[in-house]
Amino acid sequence: MKTKMITLCVNGKDHRFEVPVNRTLLQALRDDLKLTETKYGCGTGECGGCTVLMDGKDSVCSCLTLAVEAEGRHITTVGGMTHEGELHPIQIAFIEEGAVQCGYCTPGMIMKTASILANNPNPTEEEIRKGLDGNICRCTGYEKIVQAVRRASVMMDTAQTRKVGGMRA
Amino acid sequence: MSSRVLPQFDLLEPRNVADVIALLSQHENQVSVLAGGTDLLVWAYIEKNKTPYVLSLSAIEGLDHLDYVAGEGLRIGAKVKVAQLLKHPDVAKHYPALYQAAENFATPQIRNMATVMGNVLRASPAGDCSCAILALGAKVVLQGPAGQRLVDIDDFWVSYGVTERQPDELAVELRIDDTSSSTCSAFQRLTRVHEDLSKLNVAVRLEMDQDTCKQARIAMGCVGPTPLRLKKTERLLTGAKISAELLQQVAAAAREEVTPIDDQRSTAEYRRQVSGVILKRVIEQAVAKS
Ligand SMILES: Cc1cc2nc3c(=O)[nH]c(=O)nc-3n(C[C@H](O)[C@H](O)[C@H](O)COP(=O)(O)OP(=O)(O)OC[C@H]3O[C@@H](n4cnc5c(N)ncnc54)[C@H](O)[C@@H]3O)c2cc1C
Ligand code: FES
Ligand code: FES
User: Fold this and answer.
1) Cβ contact, residue pair A21, B54, below 8 Å
2) Which fold has domain A89-159?
3) Mean per-residue pLDDT for B59-84?
4) Where are the domains of chain A?
5) For residues B226 and B159, is the Cβ–Cβ distance under 8 A?
6) Is A73 touching B (CB cutoff 8 A)?
């Protein structure tokens, strides 16, 4: 087949539409669904601008995933991080630490952070740095991003005990 | 349009291995198998290796097993991702070289997407899991119309990008040789940053009796058209006691045995120089942990 009707579950919402089978998930998100928060940087899996979360846990590059292959998975973009109008603790941490300059890498960085913390709620600095591999930032020099991830881990730890700030898959 | 558009193809989505074989037989050389897509869907690669059909493995049930059985070894299904190796305690325990290759492999996103099998089937001399697997010893299980056959990893890569796999065969499983308490192994690679492919990688598997090496397998990547066994250098280690002096000789032998080229990631001269140094270090790392 050259095109396929698919149902993509993005940020908890199902979208049914037809795509050419050679369309990447990134193109489907940006061009078909007009969810332009996920960014195109390199198209070859190296910059992390296009990072989304699969099934609430695994970071993947949407530029190297076919849209048809994402059917049946729960995809989270940075647009799905807010909950009832409230920013997610990771987003708040990035703002409070000043971890955003031009902002182009930020959607990918936030999703990568979500994946780091989903797999390891209290990462060490080394684990944070290793986790951030694959997400390039041309502005910040990374220090503030590392601090933001650490702050987010502390905030979410506290939030967890207060049962707020849950992320939707 | 927000990024480069992949060339057009027809997508095949078989649900079981029998249907894969039927489709591969029907379309002969016209099909690319799609596993994680981290090689196949890179625009420049697919543009150069265009086929009218792409056959996705994602609808297939199974092929995602990762099992260690003492006395038999490790079985890695065709759909097992590199990231899964890092979560399996037996991989860390019995196959340090493979664990370390997975640990140093690309980035978290790529490790979540890339399969171990795809690395072997890509037949690149820079494949990190491939290098570790060659040192550890393994069989590739290929399934075709006439059933399954096992190809030794030593014979699997024919030349750059070319393997023993026939167009009507699917690679279904990797079987890594068993290890014992006297086996030690390690992997190291040289890169600029993690996103880059290796400039050079090396893995060893040694069977030790105290300080004496009974048997050695050395695999090195980026120093020839496919990952290479350094068999002459291995002979220096076999039956010898590991000492600083021996490792000097081993390093010198490796420099003689490799056949590197210049490319965008490094030069032949540099690769030849460091091959011996890195080999020496990886042997030290392997025996230190045994
Ligand atoms: C940003 C980036 C960084 C990378 N870094 C590294 C690195 O550090 N180290 C490294 O070794 N590699 C690296 N790679 C290369 C790539 O990720 C690996 O080679 C990976 O293991 C390929 O697996 P895959 O599942 O994505 O394969 P695919 O791209 O799906 O397939 C690769 C090839 O194998 C064939 N194939 C796959 N499965 C089968 C099967 N079961 N039967 C028959 N044929 C099959 C395909 O047809 C194709 O030719 C990197 C790639 C990118 C994009
Ligand atoms: S656009 Fe996907 S990693 Fe750069
Ligand atoms: S803030 Fe500009 S690229 Fe990261």
Assistant:
1) yes
2) DNA polymerase; domain 1 (1.10.150)
3) 97
4) 3-79, 89-159
5) yes
6) no
pTM above 0.80, yes or no: yes
End-to-end CA separation in angstroms for chain B: 54
The tokens for B81 are: 């991702």
pLDDT, tens digit (0-9, with 9 covering 90-100), for B166-211? 999 999 999 999 999 999 999 999 988 777 788 899 999 999 999 9
For A21-70, the pLDDT digits (tens) are 999 999 999 999 999 999 999 999 999 999 999 999 999 999 999 999 99
The radius of gyration computed from the CA coordinates of chain A, to the nearest angstrom, equals 16
Q: Which of A44, A66, A112 sits opposite B42 (nearest CB)?
A: A44
CB contact under 8 A, B194 and A133: yes
Tell me the chain A residues in contact with residue B7 when contact means C-beta distances shorter than 8 Å.
Answer: 22
- CATH class of domain segment(s) A3-79: alpha beta
Q: Within 10 A of B90 (CB to CB), how many other CB atoms are there?
A: 15
Of the candidates B148, B221, B93, the residue with the CA atom closest to the CA atom of residue B139: B148
Taking the Cβ of residue A62 and every Cβ of chain B, the question of whether any pair is shorter than 8 Å is answered with no
A79 at interface of B, judged by CB pairs closer than 8 A: no
Could B2 and A40 be called an inter-chain contact, meaning their C-beta atoms sit closer than 8 Å? yes
Q: Which domains does chain B have, with CATH numbers?
A: 10-56 (3.30.43), 66-176 (3.30.465.10), 183-289 (3.30.390.50)
